[in-house]
Amino acid sequence: MPAASPQFYTMTETLDILENRIRESHDIAETLVPPDPIVWVHNNIAAIWTGSQKSVNGQGALYGVHVFALLNKPREGWKISGVATAARNFGEDYPPISTDPGSEEGSAVMKPIYQCFEALKRVKWDEFERSFHPESGAVLCRDPSSPIILRLLGLIDRLRQVRATFPEECIVEEKISDVEIRVCGDLGFAWTPFTVEVDGVVKSRGVNIFMLGKEHSGWKIVGLCDTSELEIDAGDKGGDGRAVIE
Question: Which stretch of DSSP H or E encloses residue 98?
């Protein structure tokens, strides 16, 4: 089945859709089904990969896989900051789940992520933008009480400003390790711990949560949530230390 373009909804639009569905049929239920929930947590951000089944009037209707990104807000607890979903009609065969970043499908999912890192290193903002879906967005968790929520162009503007705090000749590079992925059909997810280096010196470290969707042209990043902490002994070589994804 060819890949379809992902659809994007704000929280208000999502609530309107759910309200309309409930109005059409009061007996709607959604339950967790395999793949069983897998949870990743780092400081104040978390990700959940899980399967679910929606039923209407007691009959199975849709089977899906969800990726949730969450933030832990002080005095409020965990809040969902983003959701990506792939669903099929109940009873249809669902693609197997891939977990190997080095597999053919895993490499295809990771390609736009590595492309955006390379674009950041080379300061090529047009190439960075092409790694993302035009309607994608980002949630940056620096202060857990007030996360920064940006659309794609706002994210690029912020990164431009951060890069400008470093001397032009500096090499600013984000490196990832211990990558974990999940791929199911047209939905991809990557949990990527990272460090940001300036001329080889680690300035900050954190974790990215990438949500990806597969289009006719290939995989695109559709959502990003991250947290970043300054490296205490990062030194004072240019900039404010909060390089790149800040």
Answer: strand 97-98
**Which amino acid appears at position 157 of this protein?**
D
Task: For residues 95 and 187, give the distance between their C-alpha atoms in angstroms, rounded to a whole number.
Answer: 10
CA distance to 43, 65, 128, 214, 218, per residue, from 112 (Å):
26, 21, 9, 11, 9
What's the CATH code, domain 11-95? 3.10.450.50
CA 56: distance to chain centroid?
Answer: 30
User: Quick check: 204 and 231 in contact, CB under 8 A?
Assistant: yes
pLDDT in tens, 98-119: 999 999 999 999 999 999 999 9
Q: Does domain 98-230 have CATH number 3.10.450.50?
A: yes
Tell me, rounded to whole angstroms, the distance of Cα 224 from its chain centroid.
3
